[in-house]
Write a structure and sequence with these properties.
By secondary structure, the protein is an alpha+beta fold. The protein has a domain of 85 residues: Nucleic acid-binding proteins (OB fold (Dihydrolipoamide Acetyltransferase, E2P)), CATH 2.40.50. The chain has a five-stranded mixed beta barrel. 17% of the residues are buried.
């Protein structure tokens, strides 16, 4: 004697999709997207997170590589905000060092033989181009080509 299983019982596993719209092959994101969600995220984010997001968007719109994506010995153009500017001699030669942050990561920008450069100050935005090197586990750009971003765009 065989048991007949009604067709409606074998159709769906417990906890499975209940509606045809839930059966799509595309996986759903855990976070809903939309205007309301973006507004909520901005309201619930810290000021630092908002500034980081804005800097990442600036890098994308300027056509620059994000610092977090830069590899050793790669020629890149990066953009960001100078966090710190210090005068630190390297092997007896004056060197102006600045930390550039773009929202994804930071790198050191070093101008050898310079004690100061007009416009290079904390809080200033710039675009720097050159070859990335690694020094003590940090990304460094030595003597890059640079372009100061206008103050009105900050």
């Amino acid at each position: 004697m065989s048991l007949a299983i009604p067709s409606w019982q074998g159709c769906m596993a417990v906890g499975g999709p209940r509606y045809a719209s839930d059966m799509s092959a595309a996986p759903r994101s855990d976070k809903p997207v939309g205007r309301f969600r973006r507004m909520f995220d901005r309201l619930s984010s810290s000021q630092e997170e908002l500034e980081s997001e804005e800097l990442r968007e600036d890098a994308d719109t300027a056509g620059c590589t994000r610092i977090g994506d830069c590899q050793d010995r790669q020629v890149v153009s990066v953009t960001g905000t100078l966090r710190t500017v210090t005068l630190r001699p390297r092997a007896g030669v004056p060197a102006l060092e600045a930390e550039l942050f773009d929202g994804s990561a930071a790198l050191d920008v070093v101008w050898l033989g310079r004690r100061s450069i007009v416009g290079i100050e904390p809080g200033r935005k710039l675009i720097a181009s050159g070859r990335i090197s690694m020094s003590h586990g940090r990304r460094v750009l030595f003597n890059p080509k640079y372009e100061l971003r206008p103050l009105g765009r900050e």
